[in-house]
Amino acid sequence: MIRPNPLAAETNASLIQDRSKVLTDLQKAIAKCKDVVVMPFERSMEELQVPFSDFIGTYVFTFCLRFDLLTCRVQTARIADSLRMARLLAQLQDPSLELPRLAEVLRQYSITTCKELHGLCAQGIHTARTRAAAPCLELEFHLQAILLDYLSARCVDAKLCLARPPPASPEILQSDHMKRALYLIQIYPDTAGRFSDVLDKFLAFLKKPRVGAFDPPTMYTRHSRDNEIKWGSHVPGYLTKCENGHPFSMKTFENGCPECGTRVKSKEEVYKENERKLNEIGSFAEWNKGEDVNGDTGVSRPEKGVFDPMKYGLKQKMEREASSG
Question: What is the pTM (predicted TM-score) of this model?
């Protein structure tokens, strides 16, 4: 329990630090997994794609981007919690001014972290848009950047907006991040479009701030969580990739690529399509075989759907052998 007492300054600081311990440990675990597992895997696969492209294929991996996005989410949650704690500390009466000092420390931490995360979001947006071709990931980075703009506006006020959250500034509503987010939602309804309700709730929160309502809606959907769970339960043996090079398991993601929403045909669908094409080509060749200039045919035309490519090839071979003999 926080106590406005100069003798409890060390205890108060320890309590505040313990409050963010869970998020701090989670952030360290994400960074460790990315450095030890994800980045070495992507680097090794990229190196193997050069000499063994015929066997391995060319893939576009987005796992590092996803871990950067997780880092943004955790850090954003820490910023929001720090501002919430700072607001409570600033309201307490402390003659020693120790609690207001702690509130200012939390505010300065939030300002610094917001600037760092803006750079991480900009890098993620550029990679997702140019190299990865992943509109859903790009949108999520834009949403995190919009949320950071709101939190940055909260950080500017030394009193931490004690009465109400700051009104929606034109810089946020008309920012490039907002425009691009609305565009992605409209163009990619099957992937980025799933965040339409999330953005609508956030815009409603900005336009009509309520007294005592400081925390905006989360920039997150159940669909995102379902995809993350599916990545963790990957079913081997069904690896494929979409036209943009994103690898995924067709058994795990039956509706198509989770990154760009591209539909990939199954082996059964490919077999049926090839069989249909062979039947069409063979039937056309058999149909025109023996046709003279007057249009009369020397052979009976095959029935539709009865053509056998194997029998047709054998018949042609026998005819060639007879003519050569």
Answer: 0.74
